[in-house]
Write a structure and sequence with these properties.
The structure is a single chain. With 252 residues, the protein is mainly alpha-helical. Helices cover 50% and strands 6% of the residues. Helix 1 packs antiparallel against helix 10 and helix 10 crosses helix 11. The longest helix has 21 residues.
Length: 252
């Protein structure tokens, strides 16, 4: 069976090197192994980003970044989430079947509320829209980190409830090698979760890799055109050079 992979990309800010090595590169490499579906999750971003002009700019920027880094529209499907109205229609239908207690048990939601993020309905119902994203496109691989694995389990439960209620077969295609829809044991948290942790550290290398407003941005030029590095900047530069060397492989 040909694998079909789904990757959602939130347009909430400037992509950085942490995004590239943690999510973009593996997702783009998957184009050589099967069908790949990529979408810009502008509906999902509305739980935290409320400026429509900024969301439009970010959406365009994310599209350009992914295309520049190797996403090939001739090999894959690439779209904006809000351009497919069926995803919100399915999300509403699933929402009528989901018990409130299931959503209240979502650890991702509880973690965000604990960090004083406003608990709006979109944030609370995030797993429902994510389930609609997965089930609508009949995918069998959804690469996520440990912090999102619970949402995949919820998507399964919603599909089962839908099938029982409406006597329909709403499910992803079975892939024996991916029993959990793409999550692999030992896979770290999603790049976004990793970035948040590293941003909280004082390690200059980590800050350079994961600070969207710093010099780790994929489209961010050096400040003032300066080349000379000293102090913490040397540590950050060494980390970036190390990542490049690991990616490029041995010389010769």
């Amino acid at each position: 069976m040909t694998p079909r992979t789904l990757t959602g990309i939130q347009p909430t800010g400037t992509l950085h090197l942490g995004n590239y090595f943690g999510a973009m590169r593996p997702a783009i490499d998957a184009q050589s192994r099967g069908e790949c579906f990529y979408f810009i999750a502008d509906y999902h971003s509305m739980t935290a980003l409320f400026d429509p002009a900024e969301r439009r700019r970010n959406t365009l920027g994310v599209a350009l970044d992914w295309l520049a880094c190797g996403l090939d529209p001739a090999k894959s499907v690439f779209w904006r989430q809000s351009d497919v109205p069926e995803v919100t229609e399915l999300a509403w239908i699933l929402g009528t079947l989901v018990p409130k207690g299931m959503l209240e048990r979502a650890t991702s939601y509880k973690d965000k509320v604990a960090k004083d993020i406003a608990p709006n309905f979109g944030l609370f119902a995030y797993p429902v829209l994510m389930a609609a994203d997965i089930l609508l496109y009949d995918v069998n691989i959804v690469p996520v980190g440990k912090d999102q694995k619970q949402h995949l389990e919820m998507a399964r439960d919603m599909a089962i409830k839908f099938n029982q209620t409406y006597d329909r077969a709403l499910r992803g295609r079975e892939d024996p090698s991916k029993k959990d829809h793409g999550h692999r044991d030992g896979q770290p948290d999603s790049p976004g979760a990793q970035a948040r942790r590293r941003q909280e550290s004082r390690d200059p290398a980590a800050q350079a890799l994961h600070d969207p407003g710093g010099r780790g941005g994929l489209r961010e030029p050096p400040a003032g055109g300066r080349i000379g590095l000293r102090g913490p900047e040397k540590g950050a530069f060494s980390a970036l050079l190390g990542l490049f060397c690991r990616r490029a492989g041995p010389a010769g």
